[in-house]
Here is the input.
Amino acid sequence: MSTVFIALQTNEETRPIVEAIIQDNPDCTVNEQPAMVKIDAQGKLVVRRETIEELIGRPYDLQELQVNLITISGNLDQTDDEMILYWNA
Amino acid sequence: MQIDLRTVSIKPLRHTFDNIARRIGADKPASRYQEGTLDMQQEVNFHYRPTWDPDHLIYDRARTAVKMADWYSFKDPRQFYYGAYTLARAKQQDTAEANFDFVENRGLAATLPEEIRDTVLKMLIPLRHVAWGSNMNNAGICAYGYGTAFTQPCIYQSMDQLGIAQYITRVALLLGDVDVLDTAKTAWMEDDAWQGLRRYVEDTMVIKDPFELFVAQNVALDGLLYPLVYETIIDDVLSSKGGTPVAMLTQFMTDWYAEVRKWTDATMKTAAAESPENKEILGRWTTAWRDRAAAALVPVARIALAERTDELTAEVVQQFNARMAKAGVPV
Amino acid sequence: MDMQVAKKKLGLKERYAVMTRGLDWKPSYQKMEDIYPYMAYEGIKIHDWDKWEDPFRLTMDAYWKYQAEKERKLYAIIDAFNQNNGHLNVTDARYLNTVKLFISGISPLEYVAHRGFSHVGRQFPGPGPRVACLMQALDEIRHAQTQVHSISNYNKYYNGMHDFHHAHDRVWFLSVPKSFFDDAITAGPFEFMVSIGFSFEYVLTNLLFVPFVSGAAYNGDMGTMTFGFSAQSDEARHMTLGLEVIKFILQQDPANVPIVQRWIDKWTWRGYRVLTLVAMMMDYMLPKRTMSWKEAWEVYFEENGGALFKDLARYGIKMPDCAAQIALEKDHLSHQAWSTFYNYAAASNFHTWMPDEEEMAWLSSKYPNSYDKYYRPRMEFWREEAAKGNRFYNKTLPMLCQTCQIPMIFTEPGDPTKICYREVDYKGDKYHFCSDHCKKIFEDEPEKYVQAWLPVHQIYQGNCFPEGTDPTVEGFDPLAAVLKYYNLEFGRDNLDFDISEDKKNFAEWRGQATKNV
Here is the structure.
């Protein structure tokens, strides 16, 4: 399985997002780098709106992620409820 | 007493980049608009000719008949660089969002007189396709025009028009369902009232000269369409018949046009003032496209204005002529 | 009284579809081929533009909202950085030279990307890709401008950046990045998307931005770090656009596969050659290193790119052949490049230096197979010579590769002691190449690459002197005339860091800032 990843800026807004990603992708690996956090996962990684909303206590639009996103790897599928990164092979 | 040790006063070696200093005549602090605009486009020593247009350089003054000694004579009076542009639009979008919420939450769409709702669906919704055409045309002016001072506002204009097409779509979805969009598109494709305008838009899509395209789209067509549809029909005529909620939903367009015309007028003025040849060309283009645009808009305006169409359209044309005269363009 | 009929709420995908592709129509007053004249000549076959899958589905209202938020944050940090003399917080004034390289080599490319995406965004008949391209066109002018705005303050205090637009169009090594983007924008719209949208944005962008931006963060450059990360957030959208475009073209017709493969091969190599500048920046120019070029290549290309090409295998696309040669070069690239710039420091817009002991130890540890054996001895020699007052600045012009325009400095794959030369005879002239890959790119499109504006040829032809220069007069100094043409000041913008005004000023200013006067 190939690795997919997402990297976010390290700040107060992304702290709960990273937490949500870890919750929803228990096998992922978190790399803290200067000012940036990179999360790797095998084959697939899911970012779920509901999980983030539970952690921040307000409605969240997944498109808000754009503000703090640094980079991603993998095919992307985004709906109102989740953003999925995946490789087919 | 020095409190913050890091706040030392050191003398800068220079205040701006050399190219800016050359243009503003001195080494003095420059604005972000200036530093983000002047000479941004590459000027010389291009490596290859476009395989898609081998007769021209990548950026080529010869793509238009308008001649400028310096294409950085143009100045956007709004001084839009990306940051200033997005902040301005985000603010307008906040207002638009609040307006949409207001109309939606109070169920104001349902209180519209049937006649008004009908007029809006028939006259406003197909205009999303006109905005889409402008999105494309302004992308073309940005791609094939010369000099960032002239081309930069066109990418903003292009995306603004996409935004406008999307706001109109939201109005349609507020007043009806997705089928409302299909009906409007069928009208755009087939109804006699829309064919003059559709032909106009499609004809502009094959204009090769980026400055002529600027005139046909941003000066002539929008110069008549926005005052006629948004200011005259929606804000005045329909509002007086109970259509105020519609005016709230299209406030973005009204405010937007009041802003962009400053830029289009300044651009025309600078180009016309450059030489008698430019003045003649611009006058010729403006007159020809104005006449076509006015003729194409009449049947559309008639949907809302009925027997007052000719009178009100003539008024808008007159205002347009006055604007052009002020910009030094003979029409 | 609520008369509103409950309407079906549209999901993100449906809503986005009516907001974009629903706006389009099939023209009848003008022919498709007149409205979209550049769609056929590259031989790519598209049967159904509606099969396009939108990756990020941003409507303009959301775009304005989020982008304005990013801009607000970014400019607040730039302002604070400038007000606090943030430039004095960088680790070491040598770091500033990466900023010079960036503003004169990379930022102007962001601008070309802006124009290029406006062009393809105008030309694609499919509304989905068109909107995505235009949004990128808008983002790219953002990147060009935020970079200029962030670096503007550095320009006030340090040399070498003062006329970067002028330099980009003229300075010898800057023709490497410039010709790369000129090559892309002059290609057809589909090739542009494969070159920039896919190969550059998807395959290589992480190698440019992540190390550069992490490098900035490591070296205390808040301003650059902030615009870098802020630009990267748009990059995520651009990368997915690049990937979707490739998948879309490949799915449309099997005949597209070999064309796309040729483009991927070409542009991976072209992009990699431009990244030579990044390689030497990472290994030599950052006072505090993040990772070595070799490590970055392994993580971001071999691992990540490997996953990508595995994924694309089902369309019949394979890893570009040049990857094998790049793997052989990764132990050598940055050392050969920095040696070259050290040689030509008299003709550049930034300063050079030789690594100190500690830095050499780092290079040895990161490059155990190559550094001590091939590069350390020559660098130690140069360092000793400089200490003895024999610093040698090469004033003879090097031969350039006709395709990538880098001087012919690279060695044979597998033999780091022998310079690699290739040549082709074409219509009575001889053309030179640094590698088999650059040679092949030329052979595929000779009519394009014979046009290249090669700085060295241009200098020898007398085209790079200020107007009115007479090169036949007694004692004519060609380098001085060329520097005038570049608008670079000898002794201020060029030569070694040790003797630079930058070094002197930085030390003095930092002294003022950290000690009581």
